[in-house]
Each structure stands twice: as structure tokens, then as C-alpha cells.
Amino acid sequence: MDVMPKWADVVLVPLFSLLLAAFLSALLILAIGESPSEALSLMVQGTLLRSAGWGYMLYYTTNFIFTGLAVSVAFHASLFNIGGEGQAMMGGLGVSLVCLFIPWPHWSLAIVGASVGAAVFGMIWAGLPAYLQAKRGSHIVITTIMFNFIAAGVLNFFLVGALKPKGSMDPATANFPASTHLPTFEDMAQLVGFEKMFRSAPANVSFFIALLACVAVWYLIWRSPLGYEIRALGKSGPAARYAGIGSVKVIMITMMISGALCGLMAINTTQGESERLILNFTEGAGFIGIAVALMGRSHPLGVLLAALLFGFLYQGGAELALWTKIPRELIIVIQALVILFTGALTMMVRAPLERLFLMAWRG
Amino acid sequence: MSFMKSILGSVAAMALTATAALADPAIIFDLGGKFDKSFNEAAFAGAQRWADETGGSFREIELQSEAQREQALRRFAEAGNNPIVMAGFAFADALGKVAPDYPDTKFAVIDVNWLSMPNVRGIGFNEHEGSYLVGMLAAQASKTGTVGFVGGMDIPLIRRFGCGFAQGVLAVNSGATVIANMTGTTPAAWNDPVKGSELTKAQISQGADVVFAAAGGTGVGVLQTAADEGILSIGVDSNQNYLHSGKVLTSMMKRVDNAVYDAFTQGNNLETGNFQMGVANGGVGYALDEHNAALISADMQAAVDAAAAAMTAGTLSVHDYTSDETCPAVSF
To answer: Is A194 helix (H, G, I), strand (E, B) or coil?
Structure first.
């Protein structure tokens, strides 16, 4: 045996990457004169030991699941969808149009409508670069990132113009009608009799939609003919074409699924949290999705776990900002270290780890 | 068992820190960041001045994410911090939700003057008036008859700055040209000095020789480039004259620092309600110090002071862009 068993590759490599990132972060925190152990305990206390902390963590996690899945799906076809931000922004536009202009009687119907709106808008926004890639050979990385800027411009156009209520300072839409508001974890906890759980935390039912999306993506990629075509195209374009798989069709469909998943993120942030469309509601989740997909090895289960980790980092980072003097920039550096080690430097960690592991294995 | 113990321990620790922090004021900075040399930094300066004078301490946080607005408000309120000051209009929505839940906590919010709640102090500024004054100075200092305006994020508030500025320019020289550019459409535009520098160069190539930056941290790049290229610039919010002594014509002072200082000083007895700070009550104005004394002639100062006096007396009214979302003097 000259490679690590798969379980070691999947479990040990991310774990070691994390430990390395944590170690470097600890050094950084020491260097600015704060205590790393106190910082860690603040992060854990504020995130895992309070139900409201969970509420915030799972809110961020929901975003990262959607964008992580989106990037994963595209990865399977060897497409690098770096335009999650833009697709999510357009998704937000779809959600708000659906919520503002259709009188929904109940949230359960509204969420279906909003999901369709979000998915369609995200799909269109990913479909255009996909068409350019499939038909014209314009590189998907370049076009999708350009489309992020266009999406920001389009969103801004609507939010400082047509969708902004007269006289309001905020570039944001009016509040959505109450019948479209999604139940938060707090509301659900109250239903089953826990009055003080998840107080005012933003996590809401869209978390469960994100979980459903995980299952759907797993089924799509590994259990459906389309998933087979996607993976075949990803492994080798010429071979897939030889086997009769139309690359134009598969590229288009893959990217549109990816865009729809990114768009769906907006039901969490827009319909679930802010209950109106605000300008920068994506907050980089589209880019975090890339790290989540890399760390999760493009597998829905891995994406879920990585999204939980990043949710923890985001909520923990907020706790650090609240109760310590650690500057915001350093908190971003810590998050970036995790991305660097789990995403970009896996190879660096894997090779020595494999050697060590094999030495121990053989005795 | 040990798990329960650690939970109880942490709860006890939280309770202890909560009582220790009781009645300490808190300030929440907006996404632009505390050290933007401008709006947020002015707020920080006010808080720091209070701390230096009273020896007190305060809690602070720089936000990273929209969802943290409500979170930071609630966590500070629950920890007993009072009053809680917010720098920026974007807090209006979150505050509207949170304030009723904490009736014993006083909140003060800058650039928001439309909430009426019993425990909220809203502080609005007449930026168009202060911008009008520096616009007059710009027109008088300009030799080419062309002046520039670099805004941060393209929002009505910043258009209000630009519109007031253009009105001031045209009041002095009705044939002047005002070039208005916005840095961007996302909050990143508050902190993009490189783009600010590019816009300044573009405006210089169109003939501008005085540039007014109303762009938060982006303005640092505007002022730097203006100084490098040998033209004059105008700072915003804080007094930025010192950044390039002798090359910054003046600064449009928005006394955010005083607003924060006053709120902290009043402490638990914070007077609530909506307050509008304009030229008349010293809320906005232009900066004159040793760094720009040589740039502002006696004539210029007389003209601007006359306009300020007219505003105070109510005989001169400057059009407020946000009142009807149009500007008679410049198009954006």
C-alpha cells in the first residue's frame, strides 16, 4: 500500500490543516498581546454554549451550504464557478420581487415561490457565462467573476431606484409583508414549548432547505444519469464527447444548477433574516463557498461539515469582536488562514502526512 | 458532570463580566471600520475624548456583517452597556427592532433622524449646508473654474453632500463646472483609496483643480493624489487639513465626535428624541486651522461666514437632495 486509506485522507488532512491554521492564529493573537486560550473559549462560549450562538452559526452555515454546494456541482464538471456572489445577488432580486409583488397568504407558500424566484434568477445569471463558455469558449472563471460586478451594478440600480421606497436613505427595498416572514428557530422552539431558545437569532427554516439541497445534490451527482454525465465531462471532456455526452448541454445544465443553488442562498438572508433586500446581503458567501467546496471535497456531507466550521468561525469572530480588543482585520486574517490551509495548501499537508501515516502503518 | 460545570462556570463568568461592564457606554462602528480617517474615526475620537476626560471605559465593535448589527446591539444591551451609540444610518432598521426590547437602555444613532422611540436619540446632520460652504471656498480657490466631487458609495446621503457642494460652487461662480463621481455601489466604496486616487486623476485631466472627497476611507487616496498632483483637496467629516498641510483647502466638518461625546457624557440620562445638527447649531461647518490658514484669504472667509450667517438666520436655504431626490446644481 502506497497511499493513505480514504478515511485518513478525508479526516486527517482537513484536521491537520485546521490544527496548523489554529496554531498560526494562536501565534498571531499572542503577538498582539491577547490570550489565545481566552479567545478560543470566548468563541466556543459565544457560539456553542448559547442557543442564540447556534442560531447565528446555523444562519451563516445555511449560506455556506448553498454556495458550497453550488461550487461543488460545478467542480464535478471541472467548471470553476467563481460567480456565486453575483448569482446570489440576483437570487435576492428574485426573492424580493416574488415577496413584494405577489400577495402570499402564508409563509409556506411564499417560501416555495421565493425559492423558485431565487433559483430562476440565479440560474439565468449563471446561464449566461455558461453559454459563453459552452458555445464561445470564453473562460468561465473570467466571465463569472465579471458577472459579479455586473450583478452588483444591477442590484444597485434597483435599490437606489425603482425598489427603494421614496424618501428612504437606505439603499434597500421596503420590508416584505408579514405573511412572507419565515419562522426562525426561535419561533419553532416556542412552538414546542422552549420560550427562551435561539432568542432573536436569524437562523430560520431555510436551514432545512439547505439540508434538503445537500441530499438532492448527492442524488444528482452519484445516483442520476445527469450526474454521471457531469462527472464524465469533468474527468475528461474528449472522452465524454466520444461517449456521446453533449458538452454544451452538460455545461449549461451544470452551471444553471450551480447558479440556482447560489440564488437559493437569498431566501435565508433576504426573506429569512433582513426581510427586505439590502445591498450587500451576500457578504462574500459566494467566495467562502469556494473554500467550503474545497474543504468538503465537493461532497455534500463534506460541504455540510465545512459550512458548519465556517459558520462557527463567523459567529466566533463576532464574539471576539464584541468582547476583546482583537481588531476586525485580524479576525479576517484568522478566517483567511483556515481557508488557506484547508483549501489551497491541502497538498502541502497531505504529502508529509501520508509519509508519516504509512510509516506508522507499516510499523 | 464536568460539562455542566463548565457551562455553569461560563455562565457565572458571563454574569460577572456583565456586572463589571454595567453602565459602561458602548459604540458600534459601521462596516467602513474604525480608522477610516473620516466618519467612523470622528465617532471614535468623540468616544476617546470622553474616556480621556472621565477616565471611564467603553465597549466597541467594528462590524463585519449585516447580521451582526442586531446581534451587537442585543449583546451590548444584555451586558448592561448604556448608552449604546451607533455610527451610521444603516442601523436604523436593526435599532427599530431592538430598541423596544430593552426599554431601560438608551440608544443614540448618528445619521438617523426619523425613528421616534422613547429610548432612542436620533442625530441627523445637514451635510448639504456644510458642503455648500466648502463648495463656496472651492469655487473661490479654483483657477480653472472646474472642481471635482468624489463620493463614496452611491447613496442618497452622499448625493446630499455632492448636491450641497455644487450649489455652493455655483453660488460663487455660476459658470463653474462640477464633475461628480462616485467610487462604487457597494460598501467597499467606503474603503477604496486606490479607486479614489484614480477618480481624482481622471477629474484632474478634465481640468479640476479642487476636489472634495466625501468618501470615508477612500478620501485618503483622493487627498493623497491631489497633494501629489499639486491641486487642492477638501476633506470630510473629521478635520483632515493636517493630512497634507498646506494642500488641503479645508475640511467639511461633521461633528460626529461631538454627537458621540455628548451621548456618552449624558450617560444613563441621555436625552432622547430627534436632533438635527446644522450650521446654525455648530453641527456642520468648515475647518480653519494652521494647516490651511494660508489658503483661505480674508475675502473667502468673509464670503463663507456671510453665507453661514444667512443659513443661521434662515435667509439662505440649501436644497437637500434627500428631500425630493433631485439636485438642481449637478447630475450624478
So the answer is: coil
